[in-house]
């Protein structure tokens, strides 16, 4: 590692994998990035905090991973607040606007005080989705050929012209005339200009962010950040937590009472012993929890 | 209604059912109660706020109930923050301690300033559960006969003695000696003494509270309060919201990836057309959402 | 009142003044507005909640106003959370970005789903401040004459051109080609385009917002909203609270230990009895609190 | 240090002083303690986050300490959220009840699952305050002699008897009869029994806690914890922040408009040049801020 952050000695929990990614920007979009700049705790911190709550009661769950998975599966999420992270994020304003709906802690660059750099998000051609005519919420097929070129040209020209207007309004280099105050001049810039912030967040709020923003319904651009955090930072740092996140949050299925009733009815058609829970990686407490939810299922299971 | 709160005129949303329960204590446990003392908004306020977010996009969901159910089913919960309630609650301290883990807004009676009344929670005989020897978390069978009588006698004697000690320490009626400061004298009282607070809470936080505290895993005493709020206050006031709460939160089933995979595998054993979704009250968007979650299910459905 | 909101009957606290402004937009900036759309509680709700906390202890403060002022002066702010308001706000995006740093509850119009209207904030000529060359944080003198005209022309031209690009990208009216998805097309619009949101906020958070955003250091545009809320909505609705806000928050002075020591030293130079506290509206508890803070002051006071 | 926490290597900010107190319980009251068990960041993390917000604008405030003091003096507190701490606290329940009014993150030992240890808070004789007969909120003189002995005997006897009842109700050692469930048996214990929790808190919320709970109006017992944190943990770990805390929060004076007006009037009686700001450690920006608050003060200052 060629950065200049010195190594010190600590008696706090250390995650070697988090240390390896610390201060190393993960590139996202055309000019964006997300960087872990500090952290507190690791996978073990979460079951350790839960053992405080449950006291001697958790002796039987001697395995950290089993306890951590139990907590996340059953939405006992306060122990996740015992782990914290701090990120530096560089991103377009329209993505920052979605991000900051999560009421965590932010210190954002202010264009009242600083002149913004000339960096605008221009989508890669493969992300130039058309507006769906049937569904206002998703993207439709990707624009191609002449239409794509036309859109890209227009976006680039807009950004260039906006920045020229911004510079003109500011008149920072002009000795002969006063510029418009920065806090007003900025307002002619599109929300694809890049901003940056420091984000302080607990593991609980982080998982919630990743759950909502790595989801297929989230806009591609913020999904790119969420995916980068999952793959490059959170999974190395908190591998057990992130496996539980995948199984119990990201890939979990929530059924309404009515939907659950229909699914339970399927069981009646299944021959006894036809299903081997081992095929699904199910055993122990998690299998018993399913049998509790689906009366009659037990008979259908093998062994 | 024989209370003295005058009736005024307002252009705010009015819920007749909420007006009917306003200021009327719902009795809980032996000396406890929960009372709605103010509210803001009704069932319509929630889809109205969502329409602000989704703009013209929600015109197609013309039906308030369908939109409200969609929001809750898909955990789009911020519109629920647009509805607020304020409760007066009288409850034992050990229940208040569980309640206040919900980080809402409280103004609690302080025993630093006031002398507490001589009211202690003594469980009804049918709630005198024994400690399970196999599971530390639930109650086992109910104590009966001589053992129950012994426990009740001991609890009553403890409470009486504690209150006598409290009074003795305070020496409020005693002209001849100084009493111990109230803020210290209170500490000899058991957590079954009653306290009270005012609780200000959004509908979002209220549903979360009711979901966790009306659950079978919650301690009986706080469950009694949650159930009273559901039955006597929230359901009359917000009937559509509370039906969605039942279907999508209280009676919903969350399946891990592994559990969902096993349930999906059941479908392969079901003859085509064997399941009629109408038997489960499923149609439209909610049925399509289930078919999206369970590949191959569509063929098994009738019609 | 010619709007169509029907009047109903309620036993909740009613503020006649709040009823009078309900649903009536207060105009702010060139196309903006702020409208009270619901409220819970009034001035009396705050001391009433405090009396719950302090119990019989507050009997001696029989006067609502005195208790309310005591609470705010001494930063006992939780009773303010017992009063809630809901606003509809229409405002430029750059103002919304400052506003939403206050981590309250919002439902904002989403340009992912809706096409934004052609409304941009263009400052009135008297607010076209130049950038101070000595202080990055405030505005300097107002631009005038040719320079002002040039800036206004540029801002108007930018907005017109941006909206033309937006429309072109969307191609909503064009049968022959696909438009760019709304969630991307929006990003070429400057942050002076108008958005809108519903804002649910407690009186505590509202006072904090007004304190920071009506302050002379806040940017003029958000100050215009804060001032409109104070003058047209909050003061009529909560007159006693807002007088306390002015005296103890807006116009209060916080002195560091060092600054306070210097101010205390002034007293040594003042002849005994030279200062009449009545000239400053000071008496009773608030005067005693000042004497506690400034040793030796008592002798300097008349009477 | 003879504890067994291994030392690792990290590139995160390290505070040597925090490392020295890590995992080392600071004793409070008769059986209580507070222990720093993890931390994130140090004094420099706060101005660094502020520099992100203010961007190039803060180049002029090159000195970390000056910027940190400016932030705290002017209540720009979000950068304080970039620093986090985690504590283990052992304390009587009545103190925990006050502590948890601060809506931070807690994992508390639950007496539903664990049997509590036989540890009760019994005040030291010098803290056995009498109840003031004139002011319900503070303690009066200390009880002495026979009265003190009587109170101590009563408190000790109560605690012993309560724990005997608790043990009797639980019947954990008794093979012949069922015990009452733990979640009910606990309720006969007074709130002077010890509990424990893990507390995760940002530096912003920590300073707010310390400001309110180290204050002379706070109950002695929680003040003992706040003072221990200030002296033994926070000051070594964050020395610059805690000096600013003392000057701008703990020892600051807030004056209402009326109080401020009276204090300003004192200046008229002071001869020109009579006050030397250096005597009060005032210069530069902080002195100018005071002159802005007190018109006419400048003439009274020396030099």
From TrEMBL, chains A, B, C, D:
Keyword set includes Flavoprotein: yes
Reaction(s) catalysed by this chain's protein: dUMP + (6R)-5,10-methylene-5,6,7,8-tetrahydrofolate + NADPH + H(+) = dTMP + (6S)-5,6,7,8-tetrahydrofolate + NADP(+)
Co-factor binding details: Binds 4 FAD per tetramer. Each FAD binding site is formed by three monomers.
The keyword Ubl conjugation belongs to this UniProt entry's keyword annotation: no
Necessary cofactors: FAD
Superkingdom of this protein's organism: Bacteria
Chain sites annotated for binding dUMP: 98-101, 108-112, 186, 213
CDD domains named among the record's database cross-references: ThyX
Active-site residues, Swiss-Prot/TrEMBL: 213 (involved in ionization of n3 of dump, leading to its activation)
Entry EC number(s): 2.1.1.148
Broadest EC class assigned to this enzyme: transferase
Binding-site residues for FAD, renumbered to this chain: 78, 101-103, 108, 208
GO molecular function: flavin adenine dinucleotide binding; NADPH binding; thymidylate synthase (FAD) activity; thymidylate synthase activity
Alphabetical UniProt keywords: FAD, Flavoprotein, Methyltransferase, NADP, Nucleotide biosynthesis, Transferase
Biological processes, Gene Ontology terms: dTMP biosynthetic process; dTTP biosynthetic process; methylation
Pathway noted in the entry: Pyrimidine metabolism; dTTP biosynthesis
Signal sequence range: none
HAMAP family per UniProt: ThyX (MF_01408)
Functional description taken from the UniProt entry: Catalyzes the reductive methylation of 2'-deoxyuridine-5'-monophosphate (dUMP) to 2'-deoxythymidine-5'-monophosphate (dTMP) while utilizing 5,10-methylenetetrahydrofolate (mTHF) as the methyl donor, and NADPH and FADH(2) as the reductant.
Family: Belongs to the thymidylate synthase ThyX family.
Subunit-level organization: Homotetramer.
Name of the protein: Flavin-dependent thymidylate synthase
Organism per entry: Palleronia sediminis
Lineage: Bacteria, Pseudomonadati, Pseudomonadota, Alphaproteobacteria, Rhodobacterales
Gene: thyX
